[in-house]
Design goal:
single chain, 75 residues, mainly alpha, 2 helices, DUF2783 domain-containing protein
């Protein structure tokens, strides 16, 4: 996924969160997270992403520093 696609996905997620509302947001995020974790090739990658998310939450700093797949330059 390139940066533009990531931005589109983030926007879609933000819009969906707005539609489901604050009360249902934790359920939405849990369902989404489990669906995405199920697509990973193995439990090791899932554990690494869970640790990364936990560390970002506990750091009390910016959390937009997630590692994304490398992007290719346009041809």
């Amino acid at each position: 996924m390139n940066n533009d696609e990531l931005d589109q996905a983030y926007t879609g997620m933000a819009q969906a969160l707005s539609r489901v509302g604050e009360v249902q947001a934790p359920l939405f995020l849990s369902i989404l997270s489990l669906s995405l974790l199920a697509r990973l090739p193995d439990a090791t990658e899932a554990a690494a992403l869970l640790a990364q998310a936990e560390a970002a939450c506990l750091a009390n700093g910016p959390v937009a520093n997630c590692s994304a797949a490398p992007t290719t330059s346009p041809t």
